[in-house]
Design a protein that fits this description.
Elements lengths: L48 E4 L23 E5 L7 E19 L1 E2 L2 E7 L6 E8 L5 E2 L6 E17 L7 E10 L5 H15 L4
Antiparallel strand pairs: 1-3, 2-9, 3-8, 3-9, 4-7, 5-6, 5-8
Amino acid sequence: AANGNTNLSFAVVRRSANTSVYTTFASSEDAVASRRPLLAVHTAIPVVSATASSVLDTDATSQVTNVFDRSAETRWSAKADTGSTKSWVTLDFGATQTVNRCTFTAFMHGRAFTLEVSTNGTLWSAVASNVLSGVGSGTNTEKLATTRFFQPRTARYLRLTSQTSLSGNSLSLWEIQAFNNAVAQPRLSRLATNAAAVAGLAD
């Protein structure tokens, strides 16, 4: 093929609750190492606790701890939006970590979010804004995750804040995870350099 990946070879196995069921696929490997895609497995940064702007109900189905329990069957829900509500959830890693990626799964599409990091939980620095949860609006029935990369930051806390208020609707997340994706760092640095060069061009 024109992209040089005709001879790529690897297999992916997904573990599910049903231990007798696996998902796999395979291809073939290119003889030239420089043309082989990099397959990397990344582990989320451990979370020791989470806090939120509000919790919809006192029962277990809405608790903020659901956002880091690694289960796609439980979720956190905030109280219903008002015209000025900006709901948020914060992860605490327990100690400072290098972070450059956040992945979250929202219950509803149609919101924009801001991502911020902090070393002390008081002073915050924005790392990304206008992070959209999916395309369009409506329930995220397929539980599609949203991922945003950013320049590496040292942080103990990561906060996801809704930029939009959908009156009468609650912000709700199945999961939110943070990563230090070392493979992405050279690419992120190159993107930052290119962005700065473009910004310096005359109109």
